[in-house]
Specification:
By secondary structure, this protein is of the alpha+beta class. It has a domain of about 170 residues: Factor Xa Inhibitor (Irregular). The chain has a three-stranded antiparallel beta sheet with strand order 1-10-9, with no helix packed on it. It has a three-stranded antiparallel beta sheet with strand order 2-8-7, with no helix packed on it. Helix 2 packs across helix 5. The protein is globular, with a radius of gyration of 21 Å. This is Kunitz-type serine protease inhibitor superbin-3.
Amino acid sequence: MKALYSRRTVTLVTMFVISGFEKVLGDESPCQLPVDSGTCSSTETNSTSGKEEQRYYYSYANFKCTEFPYSGCGGNPNNFKSLEECKRKCNKSLGGDLPLIANILAAQAQQKCYYGNRTYAVREAIPEATVDSPCSMSCFCASYRPGTSPTITCAEVDCPPYPEGDDCVPIDKTGTACCSDYYCPSMAPAEESKPFTCTYKGKQYVEGQTIDPDDYPCIACSCNKNWTGVLTTKNGVCKEVNCGITIHNQQKLVNRCTPKFYTTSAGHQSCCPIEWNCQNKEKMTQNRNSTATSA
């Protein structure tokens, strides 16, 4: 019996998708740049303790300023010493969501879908939709009823529950899989070699297992052979969490709903919204329909 298990089933789901947020901010805006922990190693300046420095960056995918681990040197300008500084320089730029909404409405008025800074005709495939959501597959622009706006329909993978075994842990050695494989040491053959392991804050992880740093809600790390004990966005160790807001919450964004978050056990704001306040939904829907009709 192998120690690795994997199983996948696929179901069709319908979802609204938008992208092209790059039209909101200027081409040179630091707020568009990806999170970058910098170039210091654990033995260099500001990292001699083996610990990273907490900084803030604007999450282009999640529409918010949030924490990230900074090594102490290098990186890019999307790097702020305080949450207030990040909000002051980037959240005001976010106020320009009108171009994004205008693009969506213009596409809908032509009975098309909008994604990735371009429009798609009904029945046209949209393979790029998996960029934000690896579990969204075989996406295409679909129209189901006359007089309604087209939507993007994807085949979404329905991942199975944990296999039997109290010591099983989910792993993903590629870092891009939708469903996890599982490593179950108690079920591993005696001749199977022990997996590579990483240690973070006294806890041990096996290769491919996700490390979720408590102090960085929007950062997910993976145990791999590049692990040095320090959180870094280099060499595939850590990457940004993508909440899929531009896929699953398109209507909320168009209606100007306000996202709500919870406070984590470490006292940080959660990365992804748990619900939305849509008090202005009816008004915004009326305005949107009026705009679409006159387009």
